[in-house]
Amino acid sequence: MMGGLLAPTAAAHSAQVARLLALFPQLDAQMAQFALDEAGGDVDRAAASLSEALAAEATTRRQTLAEAAEARSSARSSVAKRPLQATSYQANSTPPRSSSAATPLTSKLDPVGVFKPKTMPAEERIRLAAARLVTHPRAVETMRYMITSVLQNPGEEKYRAVKTTNRAFADKVGSAPADVWEGFFRSIGFVLDGEWLRLPAAQVDEWNLLVGRDALDDLCKTPAFRKAKADEDFTLQLERAAADTLPDEIARRAELKRQLPAEPDEGTAGTTRINVTFGGGRYAAARRKFAADDTLGDVVRWLGSAHSTAVVDALQSGAMVLRNETMLDAVVLDVARDGDRTLQALGLWPGAEMAVRRRE
Length: 360
Prior knowledge:
Layout: H1 2-23, H2 29-38, H3 43-81, H4 122-131, H5 137-152, E1 161-163, H6 167-172, H7 178-187, E2 191-193, E3 196-198, H8 206-220, H9 223-242, H10 247-258, E4 271-278, E5 284-291, H11 296-306, H12 309-317, E6 320-324, E7 331-333, H13 335-338, E8 351-358
Parallel strand pairs: 4-8
Antiparallel strand pairs: 1-3, 2-3, 4-5, 6-7, 6-8
């Protein structure tokens, strides 16, 4: 009997919750249940209370957005009134941070869960675009220089336009994937016009440029950027060493080549194939066949003769390391200790993927 009396009550309660959810789709069932309980089970009172609460919240939201817009407008005005002088934008100058009133703009949802901005705030968009450049230090340094040049000379078009096929631009900024560097430049107002990257005069926004440069400066302080910078410097060091054509270097390479064992013919039994990358594969690769009983020292001498004697010196001193990366867990080879051991004994047979890396 009692169960029969309670069943309609539960069904009616569920219907009231469903009615509230139909009236206020931004709510979830738990919130509707809470509102109904607060109204003593009266669905009309619950609906009235929710309407008042949401109306008050909407008013607060509009006021917050208006205050944020006013704060941004004031910041822009103060920047615009300040004369653009070269001395005003030193390396350590940073744009003022957003006021606390702007905080709601960086959230994807308001407390009720219904406010969804269609566009991301400019500062957040710029910083997210900059974050994608963390492993491309050469691009970051060049971009920072370009932004500073525009800030110091906003009225001169030559500082606001660059040909993307320019060798220097392609080598430095182009070291990052196109979608990454394009995304950052777009975030601060640049547009792609065929082969040209331009910042139209009408789109020069000093605030965005300052935020962009500040974001790049912050990026340079991160461990990931510092590691990428060290790796890039190492690659440049290898490039310079390989380009050394002084007579002493040429003579040393020739002597190392003379000491090398003959390269086995294709298909010879007991042959191992050694592939070596420099700088984590970012610079160059070398390939050669050795006999299984040739030594690790022979591989090092081959690298010196084919690339640079500086590599031999660095491997022997420990400034650089030679790693066996054939397996998932790379193994650092001790060139000084194992130089006379055979490739087969070191597990570098019947083939090996190796890399010359900087010592971290």
